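Let us begin with a simple case.
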Amino acid sequence: MDRTDPEGAIAAAAARVSNWGRWGAVDVLGTLNFLDDAARLAGAATIRRGTAISLSQAFGGDGPQKGWRRRINPLHVMMDSGTDSAFGVQGFPHGAGGADDMITMPLQCSTQWDGLGHIFDHAVAWNGRKAPEVVDGMGDHVTGIQTVGARMAGRGVLLDVGRALGTDGELPDGFAITAEHLAATIQAQGESAHVRRGDIVMVRTGQLARVRRGLAAGAGWGDYAGGPAPGLSFTTADWLHGSEIAGLATDTWGFEVRPNEFDEAFQPLHQVVIPHIGLFLGEMWDLEELAADCAATGQWDSFLVAAPLMVTEAVGAPLHPVAIR
């Protein structure tokens, strides 16, 4: 790659991997077209013990967000509480009482999916649509996240690149994961790690484990939200296209390696894979417990239930993914 020419590299990669028109002009599913009923049944066949493992970080006020582009941590407010009930101010008869609460948060402040309306390339969205005709000030009227809510369940495959290639199970910040690294991880993990059409692939870098050690030591989140991180190399665009996966999730804030691999660029791999491949990206997933269980059992695939919250016309959404093994 020419580090000085991100625009040229993005254009070349987009031309190679474009799925525009592959499923028709009106498609809103992108790579979720690969996750059909047969792929979902294959995912269900991975259940052996019935063990369920959460893959979600918490949604709380002490999260990693620092206000970049108005991304804040969730604000949780009680509207009714036990105190209100004890003082008899709720207005219910015969001693009835209760509690209600609300939350205010950006939809991508913790464990989340990037939808197909989240990233544009030169004001063009997924499937070649003009970005203003897809997303305006009221939301995503074409590829809103609610269009895919029921489809995100199938075979999930963990590629623990941190464990396979890193030091003490972790990759250093700035480590660019290539297709060769992914292949080496699959080979090291064995048959159950082979990636098939329609899979949701989860890539563990180990960064979240490192950040949590810092939290335990009182150092805070550091630059987890937007700073340097291991992640996928821009060169994996062809692998992400050719593997015909339904989605890919990581334990990092931004999925791709940071700093990015060009002198002046911001998330160039996003600019290819979302609007051109139509790939759904998951970020800030907690893969630690799953990784430990996979390593202990030698089973790297699971039935993954990863439905986004059905926020109407949203370009991304929080979720609580669960791996069932």
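The second case is a distinct protein. As before, the sequence precedes its structure tokens.
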Amino acid sequence: MTMQDNFSFSLRRLATGVAVAMVALSLSACAGQQGRKELTTGSIPKLTRPVQSMNATELAAAAERIGQAYERNPKDREAGLNYANLLRMTGRNEQALAVMQQVAIYHPADREVLGAYGKAQAAAGQLEQALATISRAQTPDRPDWKLKSAEGAILDQLGRSAEARLRYREALDLKPNEPSVLSNLGMSYLLTKDLRTAETYLKSAASQPDAGSSVRQNLALAVGLQGRFQEAETIAGQELTSEQAEANVAYLRSVLSQQGAWKQLAKAD
């Protein structure tokens, strides 16, 4: 998967100082250790290999199979959660939201369901509603670090970076050194153009033993945005083919060469 797919750059937003679209944050925050790597188990069709290693065609086929199980029994919690997850991964955010609305009706007090519902709302652009849903899923006596991180991601999308970073730090108090939270915290600083601080947190995230591929790709992005393209390519190439890593860096170069985006980021840094 190329950097175009992972980060959905917007030239207009880059040129005005916003480095990367926030969808990746909202999708990764609730996910925690599993996220896009695994699906909830249950009486649904089993997948032959991890979701993260599938290409677009395979993801679409998996979504179709899981979707058929969901249609047979819309009340099935696992089928609904997995179907919505696959729909989001294939870019069908509105459909994923519709699925999660139904799942939430059948399981209104389920924290995992509410968290996934909030994530679907955020992916579909319903940020204020997502924030309310995530808040409803959280309980003061048993706070969930994944929900704290998800709330931070939504607050970042709303431009409330100080509140977002407080939520990430609260999540880290509950789950020290969690790479997905450290990564979201780093991306929060990247979005306010503090590239050096962003790189610090992303390096810490990438150094954790259970850091996923998306964490290292975020680090490659932060490094590349500082003009260190060869280093970014090396980081990205740890898990990508050489062609994919080169495509990522080439795309980053092309974005930063347009509309004075790199000059504005460099001035801010």
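The two ends are 29 Å apart (CA to CA). Residues 5 and 78 are 27 Å apart (CA to CA).
Keep these points in mind for the review questions at the end of the chapter.
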